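Students often ask why we bother encoding 3D structure as a string. The short answer is that it lets us treat folding as translation between two languages. Here is a chain of 262 residues written in the first language.
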Amino acid sequence: MQLSKELANVFRTNFSPQFEFFPTILTKGSWPCEQLPPCILPTQLLSMSNQFESFYLTKFNGRKLTWQSHMGNGELKGRVGDQDYEFSVNTYQMIILLLFNNYESLTFEQIAEKTQITSQDLEKQLHSLICAKNMILKCSKSKESKEFSSADAFQINHEFSHKTPKVKVVHVSSGKEAEVQKKQTKEKADEDRKYEIEAAIIRVMKDRKVLSYNNLMAEVTKQLQKRFQPSVALIKQRIEGLLEREFISRSVTDMQEFRYVA
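And here it is in the second language, the structure alphabet:
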């Protein structure tokens, strides 16, 4: 995270971006996340993203950047009615709201086409923007209907008001949905990290040749703790996987001792 901050500071110093831009560089193994299709960024944000990507790749040749727009957030200044506001939004919400600089009204289908945000995520973001807590947008759909149709139209709610100029747009989600997402994220994290754990086990065993279970667990944890804190259960699972594939073997005289198989 510190390296990410330093890179962002160097970029801002050298390139003087048109607006405050704080990219965060995360490694896939340490910060696993759901892989979603890329969305269409507004022209200003796309230009800045491309500029930063070129800057980054000149410093780290051979690496690849994949923008995770669904994980971003920002501050969006705008006038609604006769009042100026500063909206704290996620990137998807920002992309949707910026469309209304150029359009008075847009249907669900048109927003989906212009942003390429997946239907499921677009539903969530639009619900957040029209809900009673926020209501920045108005929608033509029936209140009785929980789902949007492709023809449902959206426009800025010019009667929107808030007690303070700074507005944090609340993301609307059910408790059940949050639990499902939490479970999916953990499963994805375990899947991505298992290869790093196996690589660490092999490095340790190749160096030490023979090692007890407790010492192997301790050394693998020490190697990985700067990137993430592996669970005992996950390390044990990966040890069993390497035993099955005969990268390591158990000692004949002590089942709690392992040997590296050359």
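Translate back mentally: Residues 108 and 150 are 5 Å apart (CA to CA). Keep this in mind for the problem set.
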